[in-house]
Write a structure and sequence with these properties.
The chain is mostly beta strands and 268 residues long. It contains no helices and 22 strands.
Length: 268
Amino acid sequence: MRKTFRYIPDSKLTVSEPNPMHFGNSPNEKENKAWTNPNWLKSRFHFSFAEYHNPKNSNFGVLRVMNDDLVQPKRGFGTHPHRDMEIVTYIIQGQLTHQDSMGTKESLGRGSVQFMTAGTGIRHSEHNIHDKPLRFIQMWLIPWKTNLKPNYGSMCGSKIDFKNQWAHVVSSTKSEAETPVKINCDANIKVVDLDDTKQQVEFELGSERQAYLLAMEGSPTVSGGFGEQSMKMHDAAELSGPEKYRITGPGHVLVVEMENDGSGRGDI
């Protein structure tokens, strides 16, 4: 019988710090006190991506990519292409500036979501043009079909309340759920920011559903029929129904819920 909870500590993620010139950036600024990391980018890969290749960790259901990116001031990703993916980005701190081949340009802050249907092809850039570090979670999800019409949209973090309660920010275009973002695959994304140990939320999965949980900030505790697990920033977990989970603060938590296809890390 499949476990209803598999803990994935930060130590099991792959960290990548690429050369700044690979993405059109100037050399790192060693004397800049605003920088919180020596390299312009520090990425944590939850699944196989770029130079990290692990056949036992290629996806979790429709969730193909989850990268936790820390970008230093005045740096970013130059224009690059995407195709046949639903791309959702959640901003944890700082301001992310997006520009694409459809003519869109905007900056978004904490709690905001941007999404793209890459479909038949789209080119875009992502930059931190400000004076403080930027951190965001980027997720690539597999769409129901290929060659969809490219699309871009966003949701400003000030439009939702995720303080000590779930905010359902993303759902399927086929779902009746009222969410600010709709994507072309069977997935739901929820976020919550729990102030302290007195704050709790519940999360229930049916027998045919699974979810990927990420502790973005803080030190939340997840409990349920499986027992209890304390987590810290960057830790993750695979959840599998049927199960009812309780998440206790403090912690800023993101959950991606989807159909249970039996996938998961085969190396833990």
